[in-house]
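In the design runs reported in the main text, the only information available to the sequence generator was the tokenized backbone. The following block is the verbatim input for one such run; it is reproduced so that readers can re-run the procedure and compare outputs position by position.
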């Protein structure tokens, strides 16, 4: 990787981490504590915007581990598309008063985009593996 692309990649990586790490904690709080309060709605907006930003940023990051599709995307990018589908549809659901639909989408988003995708980031060859295990 050339210096320019290396710098670009790591800039995107750090932006991705800055937006996604708080979502792990905020999302857990939102799932575990009282719903429908002003605090829940405010944190929920922050969570949804941060998740959308992190998903968009991740789409600009090439897959560095495993097979690439179209010379850029990897299997982990499917979680970015999951996020970009879940966030607006969950927002629309809650605006329509479809609380159960909103809840299901938010649980699936948290499990899929944060827990499963996050789990893949600690696999050998990935940056977070280096952070935690090297």
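Verbatim output:
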């Amino acid at each position: 990787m050339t210096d320019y692309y290396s710098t670009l990649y790591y800039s995107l990586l750090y932006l991705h981490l800055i937006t996604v790490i708080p979502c792990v904690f905020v999302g857990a709080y939102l799932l575990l504590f009282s719903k429908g309060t002003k605090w829940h709605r405010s944190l929920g907006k922050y969570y949804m915007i941060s998740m959308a930003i992190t998903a968009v940023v991740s789409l600009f990051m090439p897959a560095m581990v495993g097979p690439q599709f179209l010379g850029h995307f990897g299997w982990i990018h499917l979680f970015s598309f999951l996020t970009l589908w879940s966030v607006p549809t969950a927002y629309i659901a809650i605006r329509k008063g479809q609380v159960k639909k909103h809840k299901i989408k938010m649980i699936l988003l948290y499990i899929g985009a944060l827990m499963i995708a996050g789990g893949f980031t600690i696999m050998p060859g990935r940056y977070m593996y280096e952070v935690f295990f090297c």
